[in-house]
Design goal:
With 343 residues, this protein is of the alpha/beta class. It has helices at residues 13-20, 24-31, 39-51, 80-95, 111-119, 134-143, 167-180, 196-211, 228-239, 253-265, 299-314; strands spanning 68-73, 98-103, 125-128, 147-150, 162-165, 186-190, 221-223, 247-250, 275-280, 293-296, 323-326, 329-331. Helix 4 crosses helix 11 (299-314).
Length: 343
């Protein structure tokens, strides 16, 4: 089978099957995401589908009578996802659009994923806290499927719209709050190193310290991966230092809860002995013991903005900006106080 200019749209399952040396039924199984195909055969067919640009958009290219978008997460374990979902579905209901929730597949090439979305005749995809590979980006672009990213792990190219929060200013405001209370040894427990939001929060923390004339101590910056247990273990190390921090800024609320538990294990009281600040303002932040000082992300508003942006793209409308950041807000509760002995 020879691919010539202008023939990409005429590629058929029969042609792919002939090139792969398999039956049309086998190719159809791969196209439709069936699991009963040998891995080596599946990989060969996927390569051919990508090579020849095969993307099916449903019978006769007809549009579904029900407008539907995909809301796809990297995983469904983050409590923020529920708030984002609320924002997306609320805006979708106002626009008369249905929302289908999915988890991002393990498909670096993106061919099978794009075909699945195309077959379902989705108007587009909102992708939350995931990493978009160049292959996936190319496949969605070729299929004409609009994408909008919420807090992507990697920095997307200029043509992929993304919605997020002002993570830099959030990290700065959290650290400045601790500085105003009188803290000078302020630690930070980071999130994932490959997450752009984590990098921005770290830079905000460092900028606030620099503004106060304080050089960041590398021993006070620990990895936490946005999770309770790694943050708990990192905080145990911090509190075991000869000169431990009097305050900790955690990259999210789950990490902050790990810090509070580590303080308890060390016999430290929060906030009398050590102050803790989180990031997100999850539901648990207001009911933890003590209630957590944290940086609020406007997660529902981010979800609504993502839905509206996606529908603009689906309608062929232009965007004023491909990157939108909504303002964060410091919420002061009972987990922060002046350091011990501070006058």
């Amino acid at each position: 089978m020879t691919k010539r200019a202008g023939q990409r749209s005429r590629i058929t399952l029969t042609g792919i099957a002939e090139a792969a040396g398999v039956s049309v039924a086998t190719v159809s199984k791969v196209v439709n995401g069936r699991s009963d195909v040998a891995p080596a055969t599946r990989a060969h067919i996927e390569e051919l589908l990508v090579e020849h640009g095969y993307v099916a958009r449903g019978a006769g290219g007809s549009q579904s009578p029900v407008r539907t978008i995909d809301l796809t997460f990297d995983a469904l374990i983050n409590p923020n996802n529920l708030v984002i979902t609320h924002g997306v579905t609320e805006a979708a209901a106002e626009a008369g659009v249905d929302v289908v929730i999915n988890v991002a597949p393990d498909d670096p090439l993106g061919a099978a994923w794009a075909r699945k979305v195309a077959h379902a005749e989705r108007e587009g995809v909102i992708l939350v806290t995931s990493e978009l590979t160049p292959g996936q980006r190319a496949q969605f672009d070729q299929a004409g499927i609009p994408l909008v990213l919420i807090d992507p792990m990697n920095v997307p190219d200029d043509h992929v719209p993304s919605i997020g929060a002002t993570n830099f200013s959030g990290g700065m405001s959290a650290t400045e709050h601790l500085l105003r209370l009188g803290h000078r040894r302020i630690a930070m427990i980071e999130g994932r190193h490959d997450a752009t939001c984590n990098t921005a929060r770290l830079h905000g923390y460092q900028a606030a310290l620099a503004g106060a004339g304080i050089s960041p101590d590398p021993r006070l910056i620990k990895p936490g991966n946005f999770q309770f247990k790694p943050a708990y273990e990192a905080a145990l190390e911090l509190f075991a230092l000869q000169d431990p921090p009097t305050a900790v800024f955690a990259a999210n609320d789950a990490e902050a809860f790990g810090v509070i538990e580590a303080a308890r294990m060390h016999g430290l009281r929060v906030p009398q002995d050590v102050s803790v600040v989180g990031f997100d303002d999850t539901v648990a932040a207001g009911t933890s013991a003590p209630p957590l000082t944290t940086v609020r992300q406007p997660l529902a508003e981010i979800g609504r903005a993502a839905l509206r942006t996606l529908l603009r793209l689906a309608a062929g409308q232009s965007l004023d900006s491909h990157r939108v950041e909504l303002a964060t807000q410091l919420v002061v509760r009972d987990s922060t106080a002046p350091p011990p002995g501070h006058a």
